[in-house]
Amino acid sequence: MATVIDGKVVAQTIRSEIADEVRLLSQKYGKVPGLAVVIVGNRKDSQSYVGMKRKACAELGIKSFDVDLPEQISQAELIKQVHELNANTDVHGILVQLPLPKHINEEKVLSEISLEKDVDGFHPLNIGKLAMKGRDPLLLTLVSKLCDPHYTKPACLELLQRSGVTIKGKKAVVVGRSNIVGLPASLLLLKADATVTIVHSHTSQPENIIREADIVIAAAGQPKMIKGSWIKPGAAVIDVGTNAVDDPTRKSGYRLVGDVDFEEASKTAGWITPVPGGVGPMTVTMLLKNTLEGAKRYIEQNN
Ligand SMILES: Nc1nc(=O)c2c([nH]1)NC[C@@H]1CN(c3ccc(C(=O)N[C@@H](CCC(=O)O)C(=O)O)cc3)C=[N+]21
Q1: Distance in Å, CA 275 to ligand 1 centroid
Q2: Where is 3: in which H helix or E strand?
Q3: Which listed site, 51, 93, 166, 298, has its alpha carbon 20 to 30 Å from 150?
Q4: For range 162-168, the mean pLDDT
C-alpha cells in the first residue's frame, strides 16, 4: 500500500512558516505583503478558487486586493487594471484568474504583469527562463505551484521531497502538456535532474511509457484516466487533476476526482497524492509563499 501524501498537512506547515515571516516583516518595516486577485466574470469554479485564495490571505496576514471585473470587459481595460496594480507599491503579487473570457487573449494579458509580481509564474518570459539551464524565473508557483520559490524545490517536488522521494536520476513521466501544469512541471523535473518523458493526447499507448516511470505527474484533466495497472510498483504518483464529476448524493451535486484511479493505484504506488487534499492546497500555499518572497525583496530593497 502506498504512503498517501497529505497535501493539507504539508500546506499547513508551510502556511504557518509564512505567517511567522509576515509577522516579522510587519514588526520590522510596518508593512505587510499584498496580493491582488483579479477575476473576470462569474464562473462558479473561478469564484470558488478565488474565494479560497482571498481567505488564505486573510488567515496569514497578507493583504488581498480584490479586483472583480465584468465578463464583458475589454482586453484594453483589463490590461489597464493590470498596469495600475503593477504601479501600486502595496501590491507585491498579481494573480489573474484563468480561464479568461473567450474575447480576451490570455497570453497578452499575462505578459503585461510585471515580472517581479508574477506570483503564478505564468509570464512568458518566466516560462522561458524556466526552460533554460542556469536561468531561474523570479517566482514560480506553478503548478501551479509545484514549486518553492528557491526553484530547486518545486512543490510537487516539495511534496515529493518532504516525503523523502529523490528526483535526481529518476525516470519521470508527465501526463499532459498544458501551459499551466504539464509543460512547466516537465521543465522543473528536468532542472531537478530527472529523465523526463511527456505523454499527451497524441501519444500511442501511453500506458507503456507510464509503466516505466519512477515518478508520475498526472495533469491531463481526464477523470481516472490513469489505471492502477499502469503504475510501476513503488512509484511516486502526483495527481494534479481536479475534475468535477456529477454526484447526486452530494449537496453540491458534484465531487472532485483526480486523473488517477486512486483506489487501484494506491495498491501499487509507493507514494500517492489524493484528490482532494493533495496538490490543490499546495497550489494556494505556494502562491502565498511567492507573494511573501516578492514582498520581502521589494521591502528590503526600498528601505
Ligand atoms: N491564475 C491562475 N492561477 C491558478 O493557480 C489557477 C487558475 N488561474 N485557474 C484555475 C486553477 C485551479 N487551481 C486550483 C487551486 C486550488 C485547488 C484546491 O485547493 N483544491 C482542493 C479542493 C477544493 C474544493 O473542494 O473545491 C483540493 O484539491 O483539496 C484546486 C485548483 C488554481 N488555478
Answers
A1: 11
A2: strand 3-4
A3: 51
A4: 86
Report how far Cα 82 is from the mean position of its chain's Cα atoms: 21
Q: Which atom of ligand 1 is nearest to the CA of 98?
A: 8
**Structural domain range at position 94:** 29-118
Q: Is 8 a catalytic residue?
A: no
Q: What is the DSSP string of 248-273?
A: TTSSSSEEEE-SB-HHHHHHH-SEE-
Report the alpha-carbon distance of residue 53 to residue 285 in Å, rounded.
9
Average pLDDT for the chain: 90
Q: Is the CB of 11 under 6 A from ligand 1?
A: no
- Catalytic, 145? Answer no
Contact between 175 and 209 (Cβ < 8 Å): no
Atom of ligand 1 nearest to the CA of 141: 5
Question: What whole-number percentage of the chain has pLDDT above 90?
Answer: 70
Query: Residues 78, 190: one domain?
Result: no
* CATH classification at residue 55: 3.40.50.10860
Confidence bin at 137 (pLDDT 50/70/90): low
Q: Residue 153: pLDDT above 50?
A: no
Instruction: Tell whether ligand 1 has an atom less than 6 A from the beta carbon of residue 182.
Output: no
